[in-house]
Amino acid sequence: MQDSATPAPVGRARWARLIPVAIIVYIISFMDRTNIGFAFGGMEKELGIGAAAAGLAGGIFFIGYLFLQIPGGHLAEHWSAKKFVGIMIIVWGIFAVLSGLVQNYWQLLAVRFLLGVAEGGIWPAILVLISHWFPARERARAYGFWIMNIAIASIITAPLSGWILTFADWRWLFIIEGLFPFFIAAPLWWWLAADWPSEASWVSQEERDYIERTIAEERRNAPEVAGYREALRSGVVWQLVLVYFLIQIGFYGLNLWLPTVIHEMSNRGYGAVGLLTAIPYIVAMIGLWVNGWAADRDGHYSLHVFLAMLIAAVALVASVTIGKGNIVPAMALLSLAMGGALAYDGPFWAAASEAMPAAVAGGAMGLINALGNLGGFAGPYLGGYLQQKSGSFVSTASVLAAALFLAGIVMMTVRVRRQHVEARAGRTQEVGS
Questions:
Q1: What's the CATH architecture for 12-411?
Q2: Position with higher pLDDT, 100 vs 237
Q3: Domain-by-domain residue ranges, the chain?
């Protein structure tokens, strides 16, 4: 995890302990929001709804997701990321279980909305926590490594959910997976997470000194911003909001409807579909790491986001035009599309973390995540609506691909001042992000 600019003796505890526990927490969080993709079929039959209504149930999570984004980031920076996330793990677990106990469609919408509220502040809080532990030159890799949770969660969720549905219904799917926050996420988080290196007994003095010295230097060099009002007037922040919104349309539209698309292409049962659905996320894990590593090396964050979006858009359209009966090439292209749709994450959040000074970065990233994730509402609903109208995923894929490509184009207009002292040059560098 280290490079030539990181002193060899400082150690790797932050990579080996902090990042893995953050991954585990968000794996379970992501599982509890996206397992509804496997529940669509059963929900539609039992609750008497169509594909558009099912898509709305999948997407309404992201309306609730808005409410704690900025407060979550602010509390993580000015109070405690560890305590905030620890509390919200329990709250989201309650609503995840309740998703399996609803008696009608309106109750389902209400519970999924409240699940979104409960999970809403966790993403910006963990982004802030990582920024306390990883200097700028490591941050794209750190974010990319952590954001592998999305791919890992999907690899686990797909076969697990498919397996559960071989012996139970959609209600038990929500209940069983909704218990994981109580028995896995919460105990591990309270044991291993720490807000700052100085609060972690498992980090060496050398590693602690390196982190705190380097981050303190970066904060001294950060641009001056009076407060949130000025920060939120920044054109860069709103460019990043638009980029993230467009990406989430494409990603969640693909993510939540992927089991259905693979089921139609392969004409196989949910057990097999679960295993096939895991394959694209294995490719995505590779893309996340490689793209984050490359972005840290050259600092051209926007270019790395654009290339990921271009690959995703082209591969997604190509995958569905191959059509039913050509499952092997279709799966290869779907895997490439998902890899691109996730590989942007490390460079994107590294750019966002450097767009604002530390005092307001948590709230600014919360705003980006909050408004951007409205695309997570639009994508699944749009996917369901277009499928209901056209009877196939081709029109849906074309719209999702267009959103991804446009996101890449907008990102190429973003420039962020990268604040870190280069080990070799000994000077602050400004690069196109």
A1: Up-down Bundle (1.20)
A2: 100
A3: 12-411
Average pLDDT over residues 305-330: 85
Reported as a single tens digit per residue, the pLDDT across 378-425 is 877 777 777 777 766 777 888 889 999 999 999 998 876 554 434 333
Residue corresponding to tokens 């996206």? 34
3-state SS string over the chain? CCCCCCCHHHCCHHHHHHHHHHHHHHHHHHHHHHCHHHHHHHHHHHHCCCHHHHHHHHHCHHHHCCCCHHHHHHHHHHHHHHHHHHHHHHHHHHHHHHCCCCCCHHHHHHHHHHHHHHHCCHHHHHHHHHHHHCCHHHHHHHHHHHHHHHHHHHHHHHHHHHHHCCCCCHHHHHHHHHCHHHHHHHHHHHHHCCCCHHHCCCCCHHHHHHHHHHHHHHHHCCCCCCCHHHHCCCHHHHHHHHHHHHHHHHHHHHHHHHHHHHHHHHCCCHHHHHHHHHHHHHHHHHHHHHHHHHHHHHCCHHHHHHHHHHHHHHHHHHHHHHCCCCHHHHHHHHHHHHHHHHHCHHHHHHHHHHHCCHHHHHHHHHHHHHHHCHHHHHHHHHHHHHHHHHCCCHHHHHHHHHHHHHHHHHHCCCCCCCCCECCCCCCECCCCC
Mean pLDDT of the chain: 83
Radius of gyration of the chain (CA): 21
In whole angstroms, give the CA distance from residue 8 to residue 207: 10
C-beta separation of 346 from 141 below 8 A? yes
What is the pLDDT confidence band of residue 429, given thresholds at 50, 70 and 90?
very low
One-letter amino acid of 297: R
**What average pLDDT does range 245-255 have in this prediction?**
86
